[in-house]
Write a structure and sequence with these properties.
The N and C termini lie far apart (88 Å). With 348 residues, the protein is an alpha/beta fold. Helix 5 crosses helix 12 and helix 6 runs parallel beside helix 7. The radius of gyration is 27 Å and the shape is elongated.
Length: 348
């Protein structure tokens, strides 16, 4: 009905209820409930009749009511450090596709690598009664909170709660060894490392791989060639640290241990007028799209990011089916992609 002022004063249509669906299909509400939830026996003919009625009426199950009744939901929480980072976006995509294929919806949260925000995300997942969560952890607090409430947890990329939950990680030490061995084979001896100053397994593993490769080659570890930046350092501060590294005697190559640091290194080298690989060699990490779009392309360690998300989702589904299984840690291999940014050091 249209009011005198031309507005429509009709009330919004009432949502179609389970009782409406049952009446339209000529069944009881309990039969309709079993058919819609997939729990309990319903004959094929009756199920088909109910599905046709649901489509005609536009019936949508009340997720809130189901959650309250079953004390769980079809929502899975995924918390990552930074969705602007292609690495985390691809991990989330791999997990989301896998979970959607088996009827779960993903609620995705960015915690900005802050413990407080990560715990807040965990509380959100608890409020949604999520039965499982995938997390790229920055601390143990969120994982512990979720597990104490009976939620299945899988840590991805980093494993900060060993023995408490399942995890999928990269073999970071071997990936760093591969990158360093590539540079050492060209004859580089003074190789700088750019990394993040954390005790996360990812950063710790890459630092260990850097030192192991030097030791295996009979080269001395020089702390002056190690640059550790804080997790939330500004780009200007990181750039200053890289410029300082360039001033240290005899440096002929750099290994940047994540894609963000690779970007900063490439920008600083370009502004300094240094040519890759004639003046200095550069190896990066994560092998995101831009590294193959610049000239020369950036040699980098490629992580199986989508596969990492897929495997994390598979472990989570397995854990939700059987809570008695011992914790599993899956370790994936990196792959060194060689491009034009690396070559022999320039001879004086």
């Amino acid at each position: 009905m249209t009011a005198i002022d031309g507005t429509d004063d009709r009330s919004p249509a009432r949502p179609v209820t389970l009782a409406d669906l049952a009446k339209a299909a000529g069944t009881s509400p309990s039969t309709a409930s079993r058919a819609m939830s997939g729990r309990g026996y319903v004959s094929a003919a009756v199920r088909r009749r109910l599905m046709e009625a649901a489509e005609q009426l536009g019936y949508v199950p009340d997720a809130s009511a189901q959650t309250l009744k079953q004390r769980t939901s079809r929502v899975i929480g995924v918390a990552v450090s930074d969705l602007r980072d292609p690495f985390y976006a691809q991990v989330a995509a791999g997990a989301e596709q896998t979970l959607r294929d088996v009827g779960y919806q993903v609620v995705l949260v960015t915690d900005n690598s802050e413990t407080g925000e990560e715990v807040a995300a965990a509380r959100t997942f608890l409020a949604l009664r999520a039965p499982g969560v995938i997390i790229t952890p920055v601390g143990r607090e969120a994982t512990t909170l979720l597990r104490l409430q009976g939620v299945a947890v899988v840590e991805a990329d980093r494993h900060l709660a060993p023995g408490e939950c399942d995890a999928v990680v990269l073999d970071n030490e071997q990936a760093a060894i591969d990158a360093m061995t590539h540079l050492i084979a060209f004859g580089h001896e003074r190789i700088g490392l750019l990394t993040v100053d954390t005790d996360w397994t990812s950063d710790a593993g890459r630092l260990q791989g850097y030192r192991t490769a030097l030791r295996q080659a009979g080269l001395r570890f020089d702390p002056a060639l190690l640059v550790k930046v804080a997790p939330h350092d500004s780009e200007d501060r990181i750039d200053r640290r890289i410029r300082d590294l360039l001033g240290r005697g005899g440096l002929t190559a750099m290994f940047a241990a994540n894609n963000g640091l690779t970007v900063r290194a490439w920008q600083v080298l370009r502004r300094a007028g240094l040519r890759l690989p004639d003046d200095i060699s550069l190896v990066g990490f994560d092998d995101v799209a831009w590294m193959d779009m610049v000239t020369p392309g950036i040699t980098a360690v490629a992580q199986p990011t989508v596969d990492l998300g897929w495997r994390a989702a598979q472990l989570l589904l397995r854990r939700m089916r059987d809570r008695t299984l011992p914790p599993t840690v899956e370790q994936l291999d990196g792959r060194l992609v060689v491009r034009g940014s690396t070559g022999p050091p320039r001879r004086a």
